[in-house]
Amino acid sequence: MVFAPLACSLALMQGQTPARDAILDDLSRRAFRFFVEQSDSKTGFTLDRARNQGPNAPEYVVASIATTGFALSAYAVGAQRGWIPKEKAVDLALNTLRHVRSQAPSEHGWYYHWLHWKTGERQWNSEVSTIDTGIFLCGLIVAEQGLKDKRVTKEAEEILKAVDWKWALTNGGAKPDERFISHGWRPEEGFIQWRWADYCELLLLYVLAYGSYPDMPADSWSKIGKHETSYKGLDFFAGGPLFFHQMSHVFVDFKGKRDPDGFDFWVAGRNAVLANKQYCVDNPNRFKGYTKTTWGLSASDGPDGYRAYGAPGYIDDDGTMAPSSAVGCAMYDKGIAIDAAEGFRAAYPWSLGKYGFVISLNPTKDWHSPDVIGIDLGQMMLSVENSKDNLVHKLFMSHPIAKRGMKRIGFRATKEGDATKRPLRLLPR
User: Fold this and answer.
1) Residue 18 and residue 422: Cα distance in Å, rounded?
2) 239 contacts 313 by C-beta, under 8 angstroms
3) Domain count, the chain
4) What is the pTM of this model?
5) Residue 78 is part of a domain; what is its CATH number?
6) Is 232 helix (H, G, I), strand (E, B) or coil?
7) What is the pLDDT of residues 187-216, one digit of tens each?
8) Does residue 13 sit within a domain?
9) How far is CA 174 from the centre of its chain?
C-alpha cells in the first residue's frame, strides 16, 4: 500500500513551519507507513529493520516477533486516526494473527525472537524470547481493543490462552520456587540462565503475567531490582538506554499511580528521560552534536555495531544519538519531543526519510545508520499517539489482562497534584 503524503509532510520537506504538533504527527504517520510497507503481504510478519531511503538490501528478510506486535498496534492506531480504513486494518491484523498461529515457531506459546518474514522459519538460531513475545502480546491487545472485531478477538484470545507462564517462570517445573521469568529457551541448550529480575523493559512482562497467570507469586513484583539513583536533582531507577523507560510505558499507563512499595513508575521514566537529556547537554566527553535539541542515548546501531548506549545510571556513550528515541519521550513531555524532532530535522535534514529519522547518527565520527528499526519506530509512534489523547494507554489498559495485572500487583491511584512534581517514592501511611 502506498500512502499519499500528508500536507504537513510536504510542508516539512519544503522547509515550511506548520503548527508545532504537526511534526510529531508527521513522524507518527511515517512510522505507520513502515509497518504497512515492511510487513509481508502474505504472512503479515514485519521486518526488524529497513532502509530509510530506497529499496532494502536483499539480505533484509528477518522479521521480529516484537516488531510484528508493534505492527498490530499500528493497525489499530491507524484505524482510530483515520489513516487507513478500519476494514483494511482488520484484514491486516487478521492475516498476521492467523499466520502467527499457523507459521511462527513457538514453544509453550512463546515465540522465537527472529523469523523469516515470508516463511516464519527461525532465523539466526534465535531464542524463544519471553520479552519479545511479551511485546508482541501487548501489540496484540492494543489491536484487539482498538479494532473491536470478533474475528480479531477470537484469534487474539487463542494466542493469549496458549502462553504457558508457569513453564517460563519455573524452567518447565525445574525451579518451582522461582520468582523471576526466564529470558527464554533454546532447543539446543534449554532455558537461558538469565532472568528478568532488574528494572528495564521487563515491566510489561510482569503486568501480563499477573493478569494472565493466577499462580504468579505475589512478591515477584516487589522483588524486582529497582536501583534508585539521581542526576542533577532527578531521581529515577538506574538504567541508561532510553528504551528502558519507553518500551513498557507506551503500553502500560503508570501515570498517577503507585505500586505497593510507593514507587511511581511514570515519575521514574520521566526523570530518567530528563536525566538522559541533561547528560547530553552536559556532554562530559565533548562529543560533537550534543545540544538541548539534539540528544538521546539508547540501544541502536553505532559506528562499531549495535550497542546499548545510555546514560546516566550506567554509561555507554561514544557520541551516537538516536533521534527516534528522543522523540519517543513525547508521552512524558511533548515539548521536548517536538524540540528534538525540529532540532534533528534542522541540524541533519538528510536524516529524515520515508519512515522517519534514521535509527542513529554520530557527528563526531561522521557516521550514520542508513536504516530504521521497527521496535524503535513503534515506541516512538505509540508515545506520540499517547501524547495526543492517551489513545494507546486507553486501549491497552481497558483489556481484562491489564486490569487484572495492575490490580494483582497492587497499583493504586493517588492524588498528589502536579504529576511532574511527584516524588519517585512515597511510602504509604
Assistant:
1) 34
2) yes
3) 1
4) 0.95
5) 1.50.10.140
6) coil
7) 999 999 999 999 999 999 999 999 999 999
8) no
9) 31
